[in-house]
Write a structure and sequence with these properties.
It comes from Arenimonas terrae. With about 500 residues, this protein is α+β, with helices and mostly antiparallel strands. Helix content is about 20%, strand content about 25%. It folds into 2 domains: about 85-355, Beta-lactamase; about 390-485, Lipocalin (Beta Barrel). It is built from 11 helices and 23 strands. The strands form 4 sheets. Strands 1, 2, 3, 4, 10, 11, 12, 13, 14 and 15 form a 10-stranded antiparallel sheet that branches. It is globular and about 70 Å long. The two termini are about 40 Å apart.
């Protein structure tokens, strides 16, 4: 059984109450205690379904942490649970800390983000074509990512970022700067070296003093140095969690080597939105999509890439700025909504202690959903407790299976047993196969007007439609759409 803990900060002012079961539209917002219970349930269900040993999460809103959640174990062998103080590896979410350091120095007039990097630090390979910090941050400078010769990285400790640049300094660029997007964590090691050169401090010292003061964010200490650090896990060939090998991240502190508690990372995201790390104008500039030499926006998957941050427009038309990470013993995400009014600005984090295939950003966003205003136009209805099967499609394949629903504390909770192509879709990933999916209605008394679909690869946003269907987007090209046998029609 998954061990679950979660705590809600008590000094919160409740918002509008939950609507009654006979209302035909979803509430504008649930109260904080209800939101916390829903987030607790989602996190516990997620750990149950993805087989990750332990996860931590947090939501920041209106200047404070409004929820901390913990589920599972930080040490399987010792049965030590994840708690609010557990430190997880951030992997590439570390990049957001690195670009904040560079942007802060730009605010102070100590470097120019658009100047050739060779003019900012003399350790750059003189044979490289000129590129800027802005291009490094957007992965358009042409630097390579980890290559075959880096297979044994993590065995050597590098005192400073400027020392680590020697690993790749003599390698050729993959393309001319500004020509193409090519993801490169080595580019962030180089940004870290420039921060050292221009600040006169080691990269880690500069970050601790100026970027993350007072926050539980620092260099990875999974294998010693921090008693609260979670152990790092990997999946073996039989789908079991085993301890990952030791790894020294000093070759890329800025590209993927930080660790943090979930609440500390959420607070960092909040501070960025409040202009407390870099100026508000600078942060807005960091979110502007970078452009290639041909004028096209820099894109990867379904998001645009700016100065480190990735942005997209969510289902409600709101700008979402974020970054995800994956490395040995970690899958991580920081998601923010920086263009909302100050009281509605939100930051959500989801951290885990195993590398697993997931829609981690979407999962973090769903954990924040109970704390945000309900989307307009939701279609409410009773919980479909009489339903026995679901029928629909995923892409062009049939999506069918048994279904069972019940109400728990007013929330509509469902269990789906996928068959055929739908089960095969979720079984293709490395984590152990699951025979069930779960649905958790977000608004008590309003059925599945909006619900979280809990799967082995994350949490997805499911909405009821006026014609009696339920729809969840599982990716840019994968939409699950189904009806429920015996369900009462929803009310528009």
């Amino acid at each position: 059984m998954t061990l679950f803990r979660a705590s809600l900060l008590l000094a919160l002012v409740p918002l509008a109450g939950v609507a009654h079961a006979d209302d035909t539209t979803a509430p504008a917002r649930v109260d904080q205690a209800t939101a916390a219970r829903q987030a607790d349930r989602l996190l516990a269900e997620l750990v149950t379904h993805n087989s990750v040993p332990g996860m931590g999460a947090a939501v920041w809103q209106d200047g404070r942490i409004v929820w901390r959640g913990s589920a599972g174990f930080r040490d399987l062998a010792a049965r030590r649970p994840v708690d609010a103080d557990t430190v997880f590896r951030l992997a590439s979410v570390s990049k957001l800390i690195t670009v904040a350091a560079a942007a802060q120095l730009a605010d102070a007039g100590k470097l120019d983000l658009d100047a050739p990097v060779a003019t900012l630090w003399d350790g750059v390979n003189p044979e490289w074509a000129p590129f800027t910090l802005r291009q490094l941050a957007a992965h358009t400078a042409g630097l390579p990512h980890y290559q075959a010769q880096d297979a044994d990285r993590g065995r050597i400790a590098y005192p400073r970022a400027t020392d680590a640049v020697a690993i790749f300094r003599e390698r050729p660029l993959l393309s001319a700067p500004g020509r193409a997007y090519s993801y490169s964590s080595w580019g962030y090691t180089l940004i870290s070296a420039v921060v050292e050169a221009r600040s006169g401090q080691s990269f880690l010292d500069y970050v601790a003093r100026h970027v993350t003061p007072g926050l539980r964010i620092g260099p990875d200490a999974t294998h010693g140095g921090d008693a609260d650090a979670s152990k790092a896990y990997a999946l073996d060939g039989d789908g079991r969690a085993v301890e990952a090998p030791r790894h020294d991240y000093s070759y890329t502190w800025g590209g993927g080597g930080f660790g943090a508690t979930a609440s500390a990372l959420a607070e960092f995201g909040g501070r960025m939105q409040r202009g407390q790390v870099v100026s508000a104008e600078r942060f807005a500039d960091m979110l502007v999509p970078a452009r290639l030499d041909d004028g096209s926006e820099v894109r990867s998957d379904d998001y645009t890439v700016g100065f480190g941050w990735r942005t997209l427009t969510d289902l409600e038309g709101r700008l979402r700025a974020q970054h995800a990470g994956v490395t040995l013993g970690a899958r991580s995400s920081l998601v923010t909504w920086p263009q909302l009014p100050s009281a509605e600005q939100t930051a959500a984090t989801l951290l885990s202690n195993m590398e697993w295939v997931s829609s981690i950003d979407q999962s973090a966003a769903m954990l924040a959903a109970p704390f945000q205003a309900a989307p307009a136009g939701l279609v409410s209805g009773p919980c479909p407790t009489a339903a026995t099967r679901f029928r629909g499609t995923l892409r062009d394949d049939d999506a069918t299976g048994a279904a069972h629903f019940t109400e728990e504390d007013g929330s509509c909770i469902g269990t789906l047993q996928p068959e055929g192509a739908l089960k095969a879709y979720f079984d293709q990933f490395p984590q152990p196969d699951r025979d069930t999916l779960r649905l958790v209605g977000l608004y008590p008394g309003h059925g599945l007007a909006r619900a979280a679909l809990v799967t082995p690869i994350g949490l997805y946003d499911l909405r009821a439609t006026a014609d009696g269907q339920f729809v969840a987007r599982l990716g840019a090209s994968s939409e699950l759409r189904f009806t429920l046998d015996g369900a009462t029609p929803h009310a528009p």
